[in-house]
Amino acid sequence: MATKRKRPSARTTRKPSRAPSRKRAAAPGRGPIRGVHAMFYSSEAGALRLFLRDKLGFSATDVGEGWLIFDVRESDLGVHPTEGDPPSGTADISFYCDDIHAAVKALAARGVEFTGPVADHGYGFVTHFRAPGGFDVQLYQPKYAK
Which domains occur in the chain, in start order? Predict the structure, then answer.
């Protein structure tokens, strides 16, 4: 008789405490969607999952066989106009922080490789880092209120 295999633990890392939510005025016709699920498609999926967990410090839920779904404390979504560069249909993922210089220092100490210095891009202070699978990911400190 075959033994049923146990599923891995539901929580692989401790979930960070969440800051109190800020009250926002409800938009007319606000829909039922409560979040965004973003994805990286990577030729090095296992290495990228470990990078996100161990280097960037995201907590995760193992939904089976090492497939990690990461908890992101906060998110936002922007829609940018384009006239060809990048082409329409392009999606982008970036991370933001409160103090970019402190974040770069902390992440570099964990082995994250940055591809350039912090620069002022108008909307915020920006840099990029490498992630497994050939990703060049933006990290920025917004100048606008969040």
Answer: 45-74+93-142 (3.10.180.10)
